[in-house]
Amino acid sequence: MAVGWRKLNVGVTGGGIGGMCVAIALRRAGHEVTIYERSDFAGEVGASVSCAANGTRWLHEWDIDVAKGDPVVLKRLINRDWKTGEPISEYSLDDYEQRWGYVYNMFHRQYMHAMLKDSALGEEGKGSPAKLLVNHRCKDIDLDTNTITFENGVIAQHDLIIGADGIGSAVRNIIGIHPTRRPADQQCLHCNVMTDDAVKAGLVDYSLNEALEYWGGQEGKWDKIVLSPCNGGKLLSYYCFFPRDQGDYVNQAWGAEDRPVEELLKPYPELDRQVFGHLAIGKEIQPWRLWIHDPYPYLNKQRVCLLGDAGHPMMPHQSQGACMAIEDAAAIGILFSPAYFDGNIEQSLAVYNKVRLPRATRVQSAAAKAAYNINERIGFSNNKDLPFYKVEDQKNVLTIEEMNAYDMYRDIEEKLAAAKGSGYAGNFICGLPIGLELPNGIVIGASA
Ligand SMILES: Cc1cc2nc3c(=O)[nH]c(=O)nc-3n(C[C@H](O)[C@H](O)[C@H](O)COP(=O)(O)OP(=O)(O)OC[C@H]3O[C@@H](n4cnc5c(N)ncnc54)[C@H](O)[C@@H]3O)c2cc1C
């Protein structure tokens, strides 16, 4: 146990995926946590969320009953030809669990959120259950007294405040980050298809593939269909991307009235007829606003920090948004655990910033590239022998190895040692083992 460890009273603004995860990590580390959520969760997003091994590993570390989230365990990534639907690039996940210790889960967001909420608030499990206060929208924080003011007039003081309040974060502004965001040239409509309905309509049962499937993405165009099976395969969640001149949804929020199916089909006259047939019976058609945020300069100020989309909102094309929020939560849990926290909150948050900002912003920039080139997407980025494989910079491409061979404990130890001015003698650099050869040709620790 680190000398100086003490129990903290932590306030988390935002009870989404990241907020619930950090509450779990912190209660397990021995702290008291209160989550303040602006909504009452009635409008939770009905779509899939993928959780690759780098996210799944923390769910297991936190003893979460992952089966409660009713995931589909993915067996492959498939990229299909836009017009014929024939597979053109595949990445098998057959040895994924064996290599990385954890599976690649595809959850339905509401089930994943409920699973995390049970772990954060439940009586069972390590530490004291976190408290959840809904209908508490954070309005302001006094950084000197660490006091949060909510729109409903409630005021609360905490030792540590975590802004997990999503892409439109209020906490981000309060700590002095005012992003200039711009609408992406790409737009997205999401729809759900019940597998049973597709089968009854005589269409292909894509759930049998247990795959994350993509149509298009090779042509440097914005058009792309992404299919994720969830709820044990009963539900097919479709993300349908197209150029902004085909439909502009930048100012339409998720949760408004469903869009008509004709609007969903309009940009796709040449799309493979099987998947087109699925989209034609799609329900709950909702726009997903895509805004580009360039990386922010920092994640912390005094005793406040940002977590998840509040700190590094990203395009969805690496399916890593939730995983990055989970990793942030894991880093906070480790840094404030009895083994590492010596009572100095500001120093722990400075290390959090050093550990999380480079990794999350690297994924953020790789997600922007994968928006128009699927070869940049983790997994497909390993298929470099395919004739049409082309990436912007082979040495900089993000690979599955970099995501999953990462050891956060070693990264934290290295950066904590630097902060304290003590030496670090481990065989890791930024959490990656020295000597590891990545498929992009980079060897960790070798001089360039
Ligand atoms: C439709 C959709 C599909 C997605 N699919 C994937 C996927 O397949 N894979 C993947 O990895 N990621 C996916 N993502 C992204 C992923 O959901 C986010 O990256 C992830 O949820 C980040 O977690 P978060 O806690 O930072 O934000 P959120 O989960 O968005 O939670 C933020 C919470 O803060 C609350 N809040 C906001 N403002 C305030 C305030 N002022 N005061 C108090 N509370 C506030 C919000 O109500 C919300 O509950 C998807 C996102 C969407 C919208």
UniProtKB/TrEMBL annotation:
Xref: Pfam families: FAD_binding_3, NAD_binding_8
Keyword annotations: FAD, Flavoprotein, Monooxygenase, Oxidoreductase
Domain FAD-binding: residue ranges: 159-364
Domain of life the protein comes from: Eukaryota
Keyword Amino-acid biosynthesis: no
Keyword Aminoacyl-tRNA synthetase: no
Family to which this protein belongs: Belongs to the paxM FAD-dependent monooxygenase family.
Protein name: FAD-binding domain-containing protein
